[in-house]
Design a protein that fits this description.
The chain is 28% helix and 28% strand. By secondary structure, it is an alpha/beta fold. Strands 7-12-13-3-14-15 form a 6-stranded mixed sheet, sandwiched between helices. Strands 2-1-4-5-6 form a 5-stranded antiparallel sheet. Strands 8, 9, 10 and 11 form a 4-stranded antiparallel sheet that branches.
């Protein structure tokens, strides 16, 4: 039987789901979605969370504006194994509240406990908030990072205790990103609690997380996820570049690549699918040599669609004489706010 660790989520397909009336989002090992506000980027990630059972939902909140009473809202996931289509997971709703959940298996065990459902249960979505990242935490076994970044101190504390080599690697990489710091430190403000501080290089002084810049905290959270010994099956990042200096964006990309392509870094662990959204032409420009990893989100009237950059027949000509970020910002690739 095929296991979830050997599968990949190849595409998400949406019917009558908010602005995604008829849209397909292709996914690879790494997918960067770029587009204007309201173009379906976050909506697609919300749909994935609904499919995985991690987000609340009801028909009125999901249905596209103006659809007929008899029409259904549908979210489907296409699965691949060794580049071969093997299954589709479908979640379907009608106006009466009916729900159909089915895995049409071809070499994959259906239903709860099957590899598709196991994979979906390990999907994680992050929209990191510096205010949450700096909070003290009450320690618990097997702490994870919450959607907004809550729990970071506990995750780091657990990483130090259970995977000291990875924790040291994280320390070294973080101090390379932000040379003013040379060590992640911990304190116990109350019984059973942990707080994080960052030691200033060449001193014994640790700057409390509450006094560290927002960008530094965001960088630490992204790196922490990249160094987890048992990461999620798929990680969604809302604007991982937000709050970071443009000169750090190459490091951010490389941290996300550490998740998606571990063997290139000598790590023997299952690759993590990564999906990230951005509005940054600076981050987008780092993917000029990998157009197959870029999807342009387009808003057409009230509807949104997704166009893989690599499918454009003129992409080579466009990128030959310009930066990818500049080409997108100019509007020649689409995926920019509509003219008023």
């Amino acid at each position: 039987m095929i296991g979830w660790k050997r599968m990949i989520l190849a595409a998400l397909k949406f019917t009558n789901f908010k602005a995604l009336r008829n849209a397909t989002l292709p996914l690879g090992s790494f997918t960067l979605i770029v587009g204007p506000n309201g173009s379906g980027k976050t909506t697609a990630l919300q749909g994935l969370l609904i499919l995985s059972g991690q987000a609340r939902h009801d028909y009125p909140s999901m249905a596209s504006v103006g659809i007929k009473d008899q029409e259904v809202v549908k979210i489907a996931a296409d699965w691949k194994y060794e580049a071969r289509s093997v299954a589709q997971t479908v979640l379907q709703f009608n106006r009466g509240g009916g729900r159909i959940s089915d895995t049409d298996a071809n070499g994959i065990e259906s239903g709860a406990g099957g590899p598709a459902q196991n994979y979906l249960s390990r999907v994680r979505y992050y929209s990191l908030d510096p205010r949450a990242l700096c909070r003290n935490v009450q320690l618990q076994p097997r702490m994870g990072l919450s959607e907004d970044g809550s729990g970071l101190a506990g995750v780091l504390d657990n990483l130090r205790d259970t995977s000291p080599e990875r924790f040291e690697g994280l320390n070294a990489e973080f101090s390379r990103w932000l040379p003013e710091f040379d060590r992640i430190l911990f304190s116990t403000p109350t019984d059973g609690a942990r707080a994080v501080s960052l030691r200033l290089r060449g001193t014994t002084y640790g700057v409390p997380a509450t006094e560290v810049s927002q960008g530094s905290l965001l960088a630490l959270a992204i790196l922490t996820l990249a160094y987890l010994p048992i990461p999620p099956s798929l990680v969604c990042f809302e604007e991982p570049d937000r709050g970071l200096h443009p000169r750090l964006l190459r490091d951010v990309r490389d941290a996300l690549y550490r998740l998606a392509y571990p063997k290139k870094l000598g790590e023997e662990r299952t690759p993590v699918q990564v999906v990230a959204t951005t509005h940054s032409p600076y981050l987008l420009d780092l993917f000029k040599d990998h157009p197959e990893e870029v999807v342009i989100a387009q808003k057409l009237g009230h509807d949104a669609i997704f166009d893989p950059l690599a499918n454009r027949p003129d992409v080579g000509d466009i990128l030959r004489d310009s930066h990818l970020g500049d080409a997108w910002y100019s509007g020649v690739l689409g995926g920019v706010p509509q003219d008023r």
